[in-house]
Specification:
This protein is mainly alpha-helical. 82% of the residues lie in helices and 0% in strands. It contains 7 helices and no strands. Helix 3 packs antiparallel against helix 6 and helix 4 runs antiparallel to helix 5. The longest helix has 32 residues.
Length: 185
């Protein structure tokens, strides 16, 4: 189970960065946002390996081939929209005022596509599927929730700047995933 926990930690790093950026950008920050982020990211990190396990090698190879492009597109779109919304904002303290389910869904899918391939590898590792996926999901839930709270503590950053920084972080994560997917990193 230690190896599964380490897999869970590595899979949750993108969710950590997105949660931190969202926590930084949300004004006013509400604790329910942190738990929503944790729930979305944790659930998708839990369910994607299960899907990968059952879909099998043939289909997951195709998804894995396009996964970095899908992740890049989703994260870049969300990040650019966050930047543009922040730039358009006239109120200096205005950042992202709420966290939509649509944004959370897109972010959670984008940051969990690599977990699909992990699910395929679980078939060869002979791990117990459900307990392993629960551990990965729980790890991501905790990391994402805590990251959102940490991001929210930087209240000295104006909401406008936080939105721009948060959007730039999302775009950067998308670029990193794309470059890894095409073999540059």
């Amino acid at each position: 189970m230690l190896s599964v926990f380490l897999i869970g930690l590595s899979l949750s790093m993108d969710a950590l960065a997105v949660s931190l950026a969202n926590g930084l950008a949300l004004r006013p920050f509400k604790p329910k946002y942190a738990f929503l982020m944790g729930a979305y990211f944790g659930f998708f990190q839990f369910i994607m390996p299960i899907i990968g396990f059952f879909v099998g090698n043939a289909v997951s190879g195709k998804v894995q081939a396009f996964g970095s492009y899908i992740s890049f597109f989703l994260l870049a779109f969300i990040g650019i929209k966050m930047i543009l919304d922040s730039i358009k904002s006239t109120d200096k303290e205005h950042g992202m005022s709420s966290l939509s389910h649509k944004r959370l869904f897109a972010s959670a899918v984008a940051t969990s596509i690599d977990a699909l391939a992990v699910g395929v590898s679980f078939a060869f590792m002979r791990v117990e599927l459900i307990p392993s996926c629960l551990l990965i999901g729980a790890t991501t839930f905790v990391i994402s929730t805590v990251s959102a709270f940490i991001g929210s503590r930087f209240s000295n950053v104006s909401g406008k700047k936080a939105g721009i920084i948060g959007g730039a972080v999302l775009v950067a994560i998308g670029i990193k995933i794309l470059l890894e997917g095409v073999g540059i990193l």
